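Changelog note: in this version the structure field was regenerated for every chain. One regenerated record is shown below for reference.
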Amino acid sequence: MRILFPVLILAGVAGPVAASENDMPARFHGEWAVRPSACGSKSGDNTGGMTISAKTIGWYEESVAIKRVTLLGRDSVRYEGILSNYDGEEPVSATLRLSADGKRLIAAGYADGPNSPAPDLLRCTK
């Protein structure tokens, strides 16, 4: 315990340290869509969107079981988990970033090809 205490003090002086947890923070939860008209759709209309909960991220035909979340900042996280889709399962990790007002996931949608930017996703309201 004596060795750990000085390390914690130095970490606090050096700046913020990324924290890890097993659940996605609540401010990321909810349904996200490329356009508001796709909100609430469970069919093909929200194929570019996602739904985030504490333990899962779901898309149109695939999902991630979240195993670890690293807080990179107030509005940024890196998650690790198991991606499940029609091809099977595989490990995956990615970063999610919220806009300052919490209404957009920045560049979180599907890109239209390898050289295209990913669109922002809009928070759906009920």
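Spot check on this record: The mean pLDDT is 79. The CA atoms of residues 108 and 120 lie 6 Å apart.
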